[in-house]
Design goal:
This protein is mainly alpha-helical. The protein is built from eleven helices and no strands. The chain has a single domain, classed as Lysozyme (Orthogonal Bundle). Helix 7 crosses helix 10, helix 9 packs across helix 10 and helix 10 crosses helix 11. The protein is globular. The chain starts with 6 loop residues before the first helix and ends with a helix.
């Protein structure tokens, strides 16, 4: 979620690692550009030359893939910890005029569906909203309250970005001022956040049965978020 405090203080080390920090396996560093380039192309993401140089290959979408979990209504690529919020996500999608796959993507990489998740910087809940976004008396860990504040911000970012998923994610992670900036000017954290987010969103939107991008994110450290979410129930 957006914060007005310095970038370095906003994210806990575990999330830093989950977004491709030093803990990522070396082999992932070689595979990730191949995964992300195709995903970004699938949703028409436009990136500047410096960032696109790292997203330089393509991956075909398997013919005939449905990728839709008919029991939940969400694309099947998302983890079970996120799938359990499927009904809420569909409701929030209608309420905030956001793609359900985008809501699920942000939930996936922010908390993996853990309503009680809290970062070292104090971001809380499903969408990791900073405390100053809440009104007096609101409970940040309440899923509906957390969604109200987080998704209203995400909807604003998407509107300001003209519907561009990459810029909306940059605005959500790095602040609305990031929208419209060249990606090379974004902080490294925001570049990683956008790369993971656009790739996972694209896999979900493309009807894949599984997401290579999400699998890579889990291997890079995201699995720790999901283990915590599963333990929290």
């Amino acid at each position: 979620m957006i914060a007005s405090i310095p970038h370095a203080a906003r994210r806990p080390p575990s999330l830093e690692a989950s977004l491709g920090g030093p803990a990522a396996p070396i082999r992932l560093a070689h595979l990730l550009p191949l995964i992300l380039a195709a995903a970004c192309a699938a949703v028409g993401v436009r990136v500047e030359a410096g960032l696109s140089a790292r997203l330089a290959a393509s991956r075909p979408v398997p013919a005939g893939s449905s990728g839709q979990d008919t029991s939940s209504g969400l694309p099947s690529v998302f983890t079970p910890e996120v799938q359990r919020w499927a009904e809420n996500i569909q409701t929030w999608s209608d309420e905030y005029a956001l793609p359900a796959a985008l809501i699920a993507t942000v939930m996936q990489i922010e908390s993996c569906g853990d309503a009680q998740a809290r970062s070292a910087a104090g971001a809380q809940g499903l969408f990791q909203v900073m405390p100053f976004h809440f009104r007096p008396g609101e409970t940040p860990g309440d899923p509906q309250t957390n969604a109200r504040r987080g998704l209203a911000y995400l909807a604003k970012a998407l509107s300001l970005s003209g519907g561009r998923i990459d810029m909306a994610l940059a605005g959500y992670n790095g602040g609305l001022s990031r929208i419209g900036q060249p990606p090379n000017d974004w902080p490294p954290e925001t570049q990683r956040y956008v790369a993971w987010g656009t790739a996972i969103f694209a896999d979900g939107s493309a009807g894949l049965e599984t997401s290579p991008a999400l699998d890579a994110w889990l291997q890079a450290g995201g699995a720790r978020l999901c283990r915590a979410a599963a333990a929290a129930g």
